[in-house]
Amino acid sequence: xxxxxxxxxxxxxxxxxxxxxxxxxxxxxxxxxxxxxxxxxxxxxxxxxxxxxxxxxxxxxxxxxxxxxxxxxxxxxxxxxxxxxxxxxxxxxxxxxxxxxxxxxxxxxxxxxxxxxxxxxxxxxxxxxxxxxxxxxxxxxxxxxxxxxxxxxxxxxxxxxxxxxxxxxxxxxxxxxxxxxxxxxx
Amino acid sequence: xxxxxxxxxxxxxxxxxxxxxxxxxxxxxxxxxxxxxxxxxxxxxxxxxxxxxxxxxxxxxxxxxxxxxxxxxxxxxxxxxxxxxxxxxxxxxxxxxxxxxxxxxxxxxxxxxxxxxxxxxxxxxxxxxxxxxxxxxxxxxxxxxxxxxxxxxxxxxxxxxxxxxxxxxxxxxxxxxxxxxxxxxx
Amino acid sequence: xxxxxxxxxxxxxxxxxxxxxxxxxxxxxxxxxxxxxxxxxxxxxxxxxxxxxxxxxxxxxxxxxxxxxxxxxxxxxxxxxxxxxxxxxxxxxxxxxxxxxxxxxxxxxxxxxxxxxxxxxxxxxxxxxxxxxxxxxxxxxxxxxxxxxxxxxxxxxxxxxxxxxxxxxxxxxxxxxxxxxxxxxx
Amino acid sequence: xxxxxxxxxxxxxxxxxxxxxxxxxxxxxxxxxxxxxxxxxxxxxxxxxxxxxxxxxxxxxxxxxxxxxxxxxxxxxxxxxxxxxxxxxxxxxxxxxxxxxxxxxxxxxxxxxxxxxxxxxxxxxxxxxxxxxxxxxxxxxxxxxxxxxxxxxxxxxxxxxxxxxxxxxxxxxxxxxxxxxxxxxx
DNA sequence: TGTTAAGCGAGACGGTACGTCGCGTCTTAAT
DNA sequence: ATTAAGACGCGACGTACCGTCTCGCTTAACA
Lengths: 186, 186, 186, 186
Fold this sequence. Notes:
The structure is a homotetramer. Chain A is mainly α. The first copy, chain A, folds into two domains: 3-59, Arc Repressor Mutant, subunit A, CATH 1.10.10; 73-183, Tetracycline Repressor, domain 2 (Orthogonal Bundle). In chain A, 73% of the residues lie in helices and 0% in strands. Chain A is built from nine helices and no strands. Chain A has helices spanning 3-22, 29-36, 40-46, 50-59, 73-84, 90-106, 108-135, 144-160, 168-183. In chain A, helix 1 (3-22) packs across helix 4. The longest helix of chain A is centred in the middle third of the chain and has 28 residues, at 108-135. The first copy, chain A, starts with a helix and ends with a helix. The mean pLDDT of chain A is 90. Chains in contact: A-B, C-D. At the A-B interface, helix 6, helix 7, helix 8 and helix 9 of A face helix 6, helix 7, helix 8 and helix 9 of B. The structure holds a DNA duplex.
C-alpha cells in the first residue's frame, strides 16, 4: 500500500473508532490526528473538512448488503432486514444517521456521499420489488422508487424518533403492513 | 408583557428569522443577540444552550395541525397531508429536521421537545387511524403506533434523501400504498 | 485594575519573560497563552498578531532614559551611555533589536511603535546636542537629527555585527571620535 | 555547467527575484521551488534551511565594492558612498538588512555569511582609514575597527529607522561629521 | 558502449504555530 | 433585580510553511 493510502487508511480507521466510542459530539479532527498518528495537515489533504471525514467514517460503518432471493416478497424483505439490522446501539445509529443527514443538507459533496451510501441500501430493495413485480406479486404500476420509500421510511422514522426497539414482533408488524400495501391490487 | 418575557420573545423571534434566512449553519447565539438587541447573557438565562434555542425556534415554525374527519381513511389522510405540506423550501425543511433530530440524539431536553413536536403530528394521525378502525376500515389488530410509522415514515425518508418533490402525483402514489397497507385484511 | 487590563498585563509580562528566556525564535503566542494563563483568543483581542505582541514585549524592556546635564557634551554622552548600556546579554539584545527592526519593515503599526521606542532614546540625545549647541560646544549649523545618527549609529552597528563587547575602553574610544566629530569647527 | 550547479543556480536566481519582488515575508522555499522549477528537495540539498538560502539571496544582491584612492580621506569616503548607495528602494534594503541581521542572531552559519558580506564593505573602509593614517590625516592611535563603526554606523542607523532619504545634502552632512571626528587630534 | 549510481522532479508526510469562530461564563454599570 | 455590553477561558477549526521522506527517472561517468 502506498504511503499516502496508508496514512489515509490509518486516519479513517481512527476516525471510525472514535466515532463509535465517543459519538459525533466527540468526533474531532484533532483527536483523530492524535490517536491515528496521522498529522492533522495530512487529514485535511485527504478530506476537505471535518464533516467529510465524518461522512466517510459513517458511511464505512454501513455493511455491504445482500440481495436475498427467497421466492416471495415477504421472504425477501424479511431476509433483508434481518441481515441488516443489528447495530450495537440504536441510539448511536440514530446519532450517526442524523449527523450525516444534517451535514448533507449544507454540503453537496457530503450529500453525494450520502446518496451513494443510501443507494447501497435502496438498490437491493428496488431489486426485491422488481422481482416481485416480475412474479406478479406487486402490481406493475407501482413505482419502485415509491415502494422503496414505503419500505425504508417507516423504519427510519421509528429509529429517529426513538420509538423502535427492533424487537422481532415490531419488525414483523411493520413488514406486514408494508407488504400488504405493496401487494394489494386496487 | 413582563420585561423578562419581552426579551425572551424578542430573542425567539430573531432566532426564528435567523433560522429561516441563514439556516442552521448560520444560526448563532451571537447573531441572535446582535439582531434581537437582547444580550447574550439574557439568552442564556432563558435557554440553557444554543441547541435549546434552536430547538424552540424550529418547533415554533411547525404550524398547529388539524384533525380532519372526512369519513374515510384515505380522505382523512389526504386532507391531513394537503393541509400540512408545503414549506417554502424542502431543503430548509430537511435541514431543520435533521439538525434538530441530531441535536435530540445527545440532549435529553431537546429530545423531549422534539417528542412533543412530533406528537403534534402523530396525534392527529393516530386519531385518524383509530377512527378508521372504529369504522372497520382498518383491522383492529393493527397497532396505531406502527400505523403512524407507516404513514409518516415514507414521507420523512423521501424528504431527507431529497427524493420527493411533493408533486401531487407522488403524494397520491405514496398515500395509495399506505392506505392499501393499512386496510388490507390478512 | 480592570479585568481586561489585568489579562493584558499578565499576557504582556509572560511575553516579556518568554522573550528574555527563549529569545525570539521561541516566542510564541501559544506559549505566552499557556504560561500566562490568558487565553490565546484574549491575546489576539489585545494585539492584532504575534508581531505586535513581540514589539510591545521588546519595547517594554527598554528602560526609561535619563537626560543628564553635566555641563559638557562629553560628560553628558558618557553619562547617558553608562546609564543605558548593560543588558544581560548583548546577543539577546541584538536578537530583539533585529527582530523588531525587521518586523517594523513590513508592518506600519510596529514601525510606529518602534519609532516611539527609538524616540525615547533619540530624544535625550537630541537634547544633549542642543544644550551643547547653546553652550557653543557644537556648531549651530549641525542638524541635531544627523548628530543623533552619529551618536547612535556606531553603537548600533557594533552591536548588530557583534563587534562590540561594551568594554569601557571601546565605549570611550567611540565616544571620543563622536565628540570630536561633533565639536570640530570646519 | 554541471547538472547540480545548474539547479543550484536556477534556485538562487529565483530566490533573488522572489526576494526583490515580494520581500522577506513572501520569501518561501515552496515558492522558490515553484518558480524556479527546482524541486524543494534539491533546494534543501544545497542549503540547510530556508534562512541560509535567504542569506545567500541577500548577499548576492550586494554589489562588489571599490576601494577608491583619491588622496584624501574625505574624497575616498565620498567616492565610496557615492559608488555604493542607491538601491531601488530604501525600504526593501532595510527589510533585507534587518531580516538577515535577525537570522544571523540565531544561526552561526548565517552569522558567518553575514560577516563575510559585511567585511566586503568594512574592508575597503578600513583600507581607506589606514591610508589616511599613513598620510597623517588620521591620528595613529585610532583603532581602524572603531573608525569603521563610526563610518558605517550612522548610515545604518539612519536607514533602519527610516530617517534617511540619502539625499546628497544629508550624506554630505553625515560625512562631514564623520571626517571631522576621525581627523580631529586630541 | 553499455551499466550503474548519483542527483533530480514530484509530491505526500509529520509537525508547529498561526489567526479565527463560536460557545458558555463572568463582571460591571445602567435601568 | 434584571438587563445590555462586552471581555474572558476554552476547544476546535482550517491554513501556511517548515524540513523530511519516498519514489521513479534522468544523466553522466565508469567499466
